[in-house]
Amino acid sequence: MRLAVLIFVLILTFEGWAQPVHPSTEQHLAAFLATNGKVTGGEPFLRHLDHLQGKRAKIRSEQEFVRYAFTSTHKKFLKHFSPQATFAALFETGTYNCLTGTILYSLLLSEFNIRHQVIETNYHIFILVTTREGELLLEATDRQQGVVTGFTEISNRIEMYKSTPAIAVNAASDLSYYQFSFDLYNPVTTEELTGLLYYNLAIDAYNKHNLQQAVAYLGEAIARYASPRIEEMARLLLITVHESQLSSGEKSAFKKTLQTIRYKALPVVAGLQP
Prior knowledge:
This protein is α+β, with helices and mostly antiparallel strands. The protein has ten helices and nine strands.
C-alpha cells in the first residue's frame, strides 16, 4: 500500500516590572532564528522592545500594557498568515503561523517579566497570561479579538481549541487523513518551543517529499522536546521510508534514526495512555 499524506501543522513564569533586554531574550531569539539556518534578523524585534519599554512606564495597568503590546506587535510583525511559515519569516516578510506568532509574544512577555504559560493542544498553540488585574488569553492569529478576558470567554475559547479537528489534505492521487491518536493540553517551555519549530520544518520537508531532511529535522525536534506528536510523525516516516524507492542502505540508516526518535518519546506517549 502506498501511503501519501500531506499534513499542515497549526502549528502547534515571570513577574514584575520591565527590565532592559537581558541576554536570555537575545539568546532565545537567536535560537529560534537558527531553526532554519538563520541566526540574525531579530534586530527589529529588539528595537520594538525598546519602544515598549517607554510605553510600559506610562501604562500603569499590566493588563492594558499587554493589550497594547499585543496590538502593536501584531501590526508591526504579523502581517501574512501561512501554515508553513518559519520563525525568520516574521522579520523577513511578516509571514507567520500560530506557532511562530505565539513564540514572538512569549518572548515579549518574558522580557517584561509578565507571568504566562504557552499551551499546546493537538492542533493549536496559545498563551495564558496572568496579570495583576486578571487572566488573559492571547491568540496570535487573531488581530482583532486575540486578547480574550473573562473566565467564561477564556474557557469557551480553550474548549474550541481542544475540539479543533486535524487538518490534512489530498497529496497526489490518494486522499488520506492523518488523525493523532492522543489529546494534548500541555504547557511548553522555551526549549520545547524550539523543538516544535523543528517539528514543523520536518512536516514541511515531508510534504515536499524530502525524507532525508524530514528525518534530520525530526531528530533536532526530539532532542528538545519528547513530544507524542514527534513519536507519531516518526511512525509515519518509518512507513514512508519502508515504501520508498531509497536504497536498502539508506532505508536502514533512516529506520535506525527513526526508531531512536520513537524510543526517546515513548515514556511521554505511555503517560498519555488511558
